[in-house]
Amino acid sequence: MTKMSTFTAVLHTEEDIYVAECPEVGTVSQGKTIEEALNNLKEATMLYLEEFPQPML
Length: 57
Description:
This protein is of the alpha+beta class. It has one domain (about 10-50). It is built from one helix and three strands. It has one helix at about 35-50; strands at about 10-15, 15-20, 25-30. The longest helix is centred in the last third of the chain and has 18 residues, at about 35-50. It is elongated.
């Protein structure tokens, strides 16, 4: 059985892009829209966690 985790996404704008950060993991991504930034952050975080799994609490 796979345990699901919930992470925080913090968004802000820089000029004409949206920047999304996951403070628990330290991943950051960006996009032209909020949806694109969040999707890119999700993908970046999933790839990071494949390489560096977090300890189960």
